[in-house]
Amino acid sequence: MKLLLVPLLLAGLSATSVAAHDSVRSRKSLGFGPVHPHAVFHSDPSGIPQNFGSFHAKNPFQLAQSFADGIIPPHLDDASTFVLRKDSYTDRNTGVTHVYFRQFLNGLEVADGDLNVNVKDGIILSYGNSAYQGDAPDGNPVRTSTHPHSDYCSQLANEFDARNTHYKRQLGGQTIIDGLDFYRDTILRPLEHMFESSCTFTDLPDRFLSKDHKLEDPRHALLQFMIAATPEEHMVQDILSKYDDYINEMSSYMDTHFVGGETHLPVELISNVPETVNPVKARLAYIQVPDGDSTHLDLVWKFEVEMKDNWYEAAVSAHAPHKIISVVDWASDAYAPIPRKERPGLATYNVFKWGINDPSEGDRSIEAEYNDKLASPLGWHSLPVANDPYSGDKSFAYSSSIRNTTVTWGNNVFAHENWDGRNSYIGNYRPDGGESLEFDYVYDPKLIPGEDALEEARKYINTTITQLFYTTNMVHDLYYRYGFDEASGNFQQHNFGRGGEENDGVIANAQDGSGFNNANFMTPPDGQNGRCRMYIWKTATPYRDGDLEAGIVIHELTHGMSTRLTGGPANSGCLGWGESGGMGEGWGDFLATTIRSTSNYSDYSMGAWAANRENGIRNYVYSTNITVNPSTYKTLDKPGYWGVHAIGEVWAEVLWVVSNKLIEKHGFSDTLFPPLAEEDGTIPAGDFYRPREHEADGSPKPLIPKHGNTLIFQLVVNGMKLQPCRPSFLEARDAIIQADEILTGGENRCTLWEGFSVRGLGPDARVDGRTPWGGGIRTDDFELPEACQ
Ligand SMILES: *[C@@H]1O[C@H](CO)[C@@H](O)[C@H](O)[C@H]1NC(C)=O
Ligand SMILES: *[C@@H]1O[C@H](CO)[C@@H](O)[C@H](O)[C@H]1NC(C)=O
Ligand SMILES: *[C@@H]1O[C@H](CO)[C@@H](O)[C@H](O)[C@H]1NC(C)=O
Ligand SMILES: *[C@@H]1O[C@H](CO)[C@@H](O)[C@H](O)[C@H]1NC(C)=O
User: Fold this and answer.
1) Which ligand is nearest to the CA of 669?
2) CATH architecture under which domain 348-573 falls
3) Hey, which residues are catalytic here?
4) How far does the signal peptide extend, from start to end residue (predicted)?
5) Do the annotations mark residue 555 as ligand-binding?
6) How many CA atoms lie within 13 A of 671 on its CB side?
7) How many helices (H) and strands (E) does the chain have?
8) Would you say the CB of residue 602 lies under 6 angstroms from ligand 3?
9) Which of 258, 364, 499, 626 is 20 to 30 A from 182, alpha carbon to alpha carbon?
10) Average pLDDT per consecutive 10 residues, the chain (789 residues; last block may be shorter)
């Protein structure tokens, strides 16, 4: 019955007319997948088996491997293995080793079977586990029985039904009208597309449904995904009408260059896929589909699909009918509901200096390159020839030779204009600071209305690229010092032999022509460039340039950090949807707000200047006052809070409250930047860190930031490293509390709980009746743990 109802609802939806909201461009973005009912995060070491003997105690990786082997349930003993991922690493400050495993069954990867184990001093501190626990599949993956298609479709239908009902209620005229277009485009439309492409087949050629496709042929599953993914309605029609032509055009070959994880399974590269800008990577894997309290396995093609405005990681059933089980867009939008030479010295830039959020808050001044030798040993305008995408044929270059540039091009960031909104960037325009590296340009936008406003905004491209380059490098250097370094997956062309994958500096597009009134960031796994696209905002005259609003740039770059730190540098699929996707947005808002805050407390909005709205682009300003910002955990149950930006707003607000509790206790540091290292590499404590303590054996203990705002910054970063893949609010909270346990011995335990409890995330906060698609009823807990009362 439900299934029959849905198309009617869909028809009703398309007939609904919603006043077009010219001020916001909504990029189509699919982000969808099941919540695992059996996933756990244990952060109490006393509840975790620790008996692995002294043999392993010295090597955290071996210890973690023994632990991993030990938690495989007996009935899976013969079939299941945990393979240690090579992006595992030891944190230089805390000494915690973050070990990541991927589950394999009969030699085939379980794409969402993630295990992360945190180890220090021979103790398993915590672990998160979403490995498949059901019966072993029979030896031949090809014959694996799959989750009934009809169940999948009725679940999808129910979810659409519920969301559409809420949407219509909102249309009836209430509060979040501004967010409605966005809600329709990003929450409803993807579901609609998924349902249509996976559950209704009336328009598709018969062959599409054929069970005869060779399982080894990923093209049908891929083409069906493209039908759901393309933002162009006419492309959908075109593919449907010329289905066989499109299939035949696609060609694929095995590539041994990209090995699929640690078992060296080959990856297939598929070319000539419509709507993509690079060959699609494909490999077979299992994925888990929720079924009550446990999960079924489904055999899927895992695709990495790079499109103009999206970079998807999708899991699509290998068997026909090909349903999309999960999809993560590595691109995240800023927001949503609403709207070469000798170098004489350091470069200088005429910019809104660090701490000035946007042009309404202050004037520009001449600022020098930051010169942190630890974070950026070569400075901001140099990189090894071997890691320079400009160099052409690398075989002639000595890897040790350094290229110094006089443009906005260096080891951390390539910043440039991208008016054409294209994917290529190397040849794009960049300002040239000359031999003295002085990037000093005018900024004096005139009030020119109409068509010419865009041309006027483009006159300041030099200024804008300079600002984007400066802010992005500052963020690189700041985050580096809190532990987002090479080993943990940061963005650099060259890694100085300090671990991690190279050749992944940030490609930063100023005034990107692919949109207006927004911004976004694409985070592929470690070793591939991140891509930041900033837009012009047509929200005022003169137009406002997102590059000049530090908060928006910081929000975007923070996606890069949270995605690389959660679940390990090589897994970019851990913050794709639901609560975890929401927190991906929330961390960006929280860190942007923390960066602009001063010792005089104030409430802050997000994106207020660019959007030309006093209260910014979120529902509420960030405030410790619960009357001003009433968000609590339970708020997530409200209609309008399914989108990641609304969820993120709640998380950022919780962190803001927690942060201010720590500031009350430890005071406020006027700078978030730790002291520069001495010549010999040691870091002075200054007024920034507490005096360094040592263990009984003389080895140094971790450096601990002294003040509340720097401490929360550190705990949030460390928490990202501890938490499991696809964390919930409760798990991310527990990871922050454990980060404090590790760093300070837990001296802020009760202060942290005070902050979390004020916003409903006390120890007994819970969600009941969690649906596979993220629904459920949340209960706030405003109490403190007994030990803190
Ligand atoms: C680049 O600058 C560094 C100093 O930062 C200098 O040692 C090196 O010789 C320069 N390279 C070239 C090719 O000029
Ligand atoms: C940007 O600066 C360059 C000098 O580096 C100058 O030649 C050019 O005209 C400037 N562009 C604009 C749009 O002002
Ligand atoms: C905080 O407020 C005081 C009093 O208004 C002012 O003197 C001081 O400069 C302010 N500090 C900052 C960092 O804004
Ligand atoms: C919180 O905000 C409300 C509404 O603006 C105000 O009336 C109240 O005094 C504020 N409370 C505190 C503690 O500042």
Assistant:
1) 3
2) Roll (3.10)
3) 556
4) 1-20
5) yes
6) 13
7) 18, 26
8) no
9) 626
10) 24 24 52 80 89 68 92 88 93 95 87 94 94 78 47 69 68 45 57 60 40 65 87 84 86 58 64 91 86 82 88 85 80 45 77 97 96 92 84 45 87 96 88 92 92 93 98 98 97 92 96 91 93 94 96 96 97 90 95 98 96 91 97 90 86 98 98 93 91 89 96 98 97 98 97 98 92 78 96
Domain regions of the chain by residue span: 2-34+144-329, 40-129, 348-573, 621-643+650-788
At the fourth CATH level, which superfamily is domain 621-643+650-788? Neutral Protease Domain 2 (1.10.390.10)
Q: Name the residue of 627, 629, 660, 664 whose CB sits within 8 Å of the most ligand 4 atoms, as the mutation to test its pocket.
A: 627
pLDDT of residue 333: 58
- Read off the pTM: 0.82
CA of 628 to the centre of ligand 4 (A): 7
| Rounded distance between C-alpha atoms, residue 19 and residue 26, angstroms | 14
Atom of ligand 1 nearest to the CA of 342: 14
Give the distance (Å) from ligand 1 centre to CA of residue 508.
Answer: 25
Which string of DSSP letters, residue by residue, matches 214-280?
-TT--HHHHHHHHHHH-S-HHHHHHHHHTHHHHHHH-EEEEEEEEEEGGGTEEEEEEE--TTBSSPE
**CB 402 near ligand 1, within 6 Å:** yes
> Taking a C-beta distance cutoff of 8 angstroms, is the pair 576, 326 a contact?
yes
DSSP letter (8 states) at residue 391: G
Ligand 3 close to Cβ of residue 599 (< 6 A):
yes
Work out whether the CA dihedral 414, 230, 171, 31 comes out positive or negative: negative
Ligand nearest to the CA of 361: 3
